[in-house]
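The aim of this short unit is practical: by the end, you should be able to scan a pair of folded records and say something sensible about each. We start with the first protein, listed as its amino acid sequence and then its structure tokens.
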Amino acid sequence: MRHRLRYLRINFNPRESWFHFRRNIAQMRGTNVWVFILYGLLFDTAANLWRPFALPFLSRLGGEEIHITLLNSLPGAVAAVVLLPGALLFRKFANQKKATAAFILLSRALILVLALIPALPPHVRPMLFVVMLGLMNCPDALSQTSLQSFLGSVFNGNMRGQAIAMRTKFGQAIIPVVSIITGLVITFVPRTEEQRMMLYQGFFIIAFLVGVWEVRMFMRLKVEERPPAETADSPRKREIFLAIMRDKRFRLFFFPAIFFVFTWQAGWTLFAFHQVRVLNATELWFAIFALASGVSAFISGSFWQKWLRKYGNNAIFVISGMLLAANTIMTPFVPNVQMMAVISLFTGFSAIGINTALLNGVLEATPDENRMIYLAFYNTIVNVSLFIAPFFAHLLFTIWGNAMALFIISGLRIASTGVIWLVHRRIKLKQPTE
């Protein structure tokens, strides 16, 4: 399998013929790339049956600005607490793939709890919904960190970048389809608010069922199982963490990436304030935003894949980071939901570049040995940032209002992108002499 994947050439160019497209699909069938793409499609389907509508659902439950802030913040707090202990626990499992599948299934099972919330007293609904989303991130964060570790061993360097880009590209094709269908149904089918809540409950249940299918597909991923790493001769936990901090290659990726991620996450809460409170976006418009972003991301997938191979992750960071900063500057001037849909086109284009570069970048920066611990450490700090960033954004919103807060975040995004560029330039200048 590894031999076959290593020499498989996959190049999805929008101009290539249908014949070549079918030939490439036939080449992938039965490979880990194929299974990874199908797993990604099911993952994205389960998530986008309800996640794009979490904000309007929270608003219908009676949520206010503090609930929106917590909606963005609590998942990061939960993940930050559980990731490192969970990664150390994973080292003791004889079959890490089965353990990962169990955590994925637990996360999808918690979606059923969300379906019960509309039946509860109104005064507890908003906070309970926010808390449940935070708790769901416990099994989610552990399973996704373990999956990232698998990708580092399943695919080699060149194929890994292509597999990630292709999984993201196909996912971006299914996301808008699922989101727009769900948004249309929630908007036009119900005649009363009670019927709308029943539809939400139905989509939560469907998402759980798709999640079960997702777990079955994940189990088809061929991973070379290894015995538990926690042995008598294994390095102590403290030694592993000290080694992470001494790893120059990892540090050069880690610190600029975290600076950028913080500025990226801080903008999410402000975007939500603008869409819900200023533009009064409904479920249908949230579906249209997802459609515009998804179509743009799907079309740009080949572009980012080509640039990733040609220029590397840091160059992709710089380009997509500047585009995200430009989006942030434009958002306060968006007067209506129609223009917001246009902005979503640019958001989708730049976000897929960031997502691809982040995932491929962290896998390149982590060694094969103790990769799970490296990834848990990285994701823990990312989630600490996710916990702090919404409150930082809320503080800016409280002091200066949403427009000025967005301008400040945009300036920080530009600064973080500049740091990434400087680090990349320093590495290139040092390469001839090292």
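Turning to the second protein, read its sequence before its tokens, just as you did above.
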Amino acid sequence: MNKGSNAKYWIWLTQALGYNNRKIKGLFELYEDIAVFCEGGEQEWRFSGTLNHNDIHKLKTTPIAEAEKILEQSRRHGYSLICIDDEEYPECVLNLFSPPAVLYVDGRLPDVDHVLTIGIVGTRTASNYGVRNAYKIGYSLSKYGVYTVSGGALGVDCASHRGTLAANGVTICVLGCGIDYPYLMTNAGMRRDIAKNGAVISEYPPGTPPKPYHFPARNRLIAALSRGVLIIESGKNSGSLITADLALEQGKELFALLGNNSPNNEGSNFRIKEGTAVPITDFMDIIMAFRDSYSREEKKPIDFISLADIEMIPVKGTKRVRKHLKGFKQIDPGYTIDDILDEKQDKEPEKPEPKHNTKVNLTSDEQAVYDYLTAEPVHIDTISRDLKLPIFRVLAALTQLEMKDLVLAAKGRKFSLK
């Protein structure tokens, strides 16, 4: 059959019977062509032995035109539909107890059955520690060719997606609403960027608002699409623990970032304590856990990451969101670390000005970079060239100077004295 020829029938069944319904998979397993069932009418529906009286009533009272309207709306938005009977429907999703009848996709869903994918989940109210690690792990995994999966929310989700994008990697964002719904507009630009090299997906048609019960259902997809799931900061009652439990039920590897004893880490630390989650300190712990199946031969060096990128990530319930929202909209999400490192400065640098002294203990690289900088922002390539230091050493020094509150980082990898 032609791809998508049965899309309206699967949409119709979902509209009538609801989402996350095991009977959808039962019908898929029973009928080679779902059109036979849908067009067979009430007699066929009864003979299928799958539906009860209430289900049949819902089919009779749900017009097929409703499904046709959703199909047309999806095409108008440029979304693709992957139905449960399509060849490209992921096997890892089909293995679910109640897989979606339809996946709505903005972008291109990668072949998740044959690549290493890691889900990264955690609290929306992430600390700086959580945000930085989610960003850095997403970035570093992507440099090793690993695809990341998360839910597009504030905090940990957002940081992992953005870290992947900064490495020019592939990430999958699973939403608990329609792809086009104006949900978390702070992340709207990020979602558009994800679709350029990965996919934003949902089992809900365009225009569907988020409902509380959508998110646990969304979490089963995050777990299904991932070979392993990493928890970064998860409170005792955090929704990310639902994803963790679903991952364990599906036989996936579960990891948790080691954290302190704050409430933000209560849930993830308990998973480590009970032995269901493997404790990690950095991305390489995950790579090593999959070393038997990980086959990428050439691995890119992991660059040090400026704290300036991480400070722009929105987090629920903190001043970070309000403070950086305006500036965040001015960021070019496509301006990646690789682009910056390849950028060349045509203008000759001005002669460095005298600096003030500092009583803070600095390494030789940190001191050299600190002495070079002035109040005028200068690009990292210029610093590297003038000091004759490799980029990775300059980045390391700048990161430490930022942490010591001596240096300011601006957009475009420019730095100045604070």
